[in-house]
Amino acid sequence: MTQRRVVVAIDGPAGAGKSTIARRLAERLGFTYIDTGAMYRAVALWALRQNVDPTDMHRMEQLALAAEIELQPGRIRLNGEDVTEAIRSPEVSSGASKIAVIAGVRRRMVDKQRSIGERASVVMEGRDIGTVVFPDADVKIFLDAQPPERVRRRLLEVRAKGEQVAESTLALEMEERDRRDSTRRDAPLAQAPDAIYLDSTALSIDEVEEAVLKIVRQRVTNGKEFH
What we know:
Keywords: ATP-binding, Cytoplasm, Kinase, Nucleotide-binding, Transferase. By secondary structure, this protein is of the alpha/beta class.
């Protein structure tokens, strides 16, 4: 394994398979998977416990700054406590979506994400990782898929959780999210100029994983050092 720290940034729209690929890649390479969603959830959980209104921007930024967040394979710790299960409640989900739009909170989270990237090799996915969070990432991938395929994948995900939603409703929601992500002022979804574009429409998860792994090997080690 290469000794230097490596940062792999995976960006792309909703339903492209970023989270699944980032998790599998991190596991395969022995890197830390920076689960941004879990990080925001951890701060939202703390806000709930402290009875802080998630719309109170100043207090939320203070909490985000003070939160000590540790990421381990499949686990997350907040201020020394394992909160992996605690952050999955509907109340925490709701709070996380409210605080994720606060610019000050996002700034603090980006600082923490960069700090993790300074201590270990990481894989991180999102919508602005290669452009904003880790602009100097060793490997940048823009993972995409055609809209009908992204809707199909998200539909399978949602139904696997036992939720019922019409395909047409989901398609409209994702179209709106794409529009919002691409046009927002604060860190919009965009492909970094030096990112490799990967269309996963016709590929299985295993095939996407192998394709990304190949890119990482070529970019970081000339194919020699990774197993």
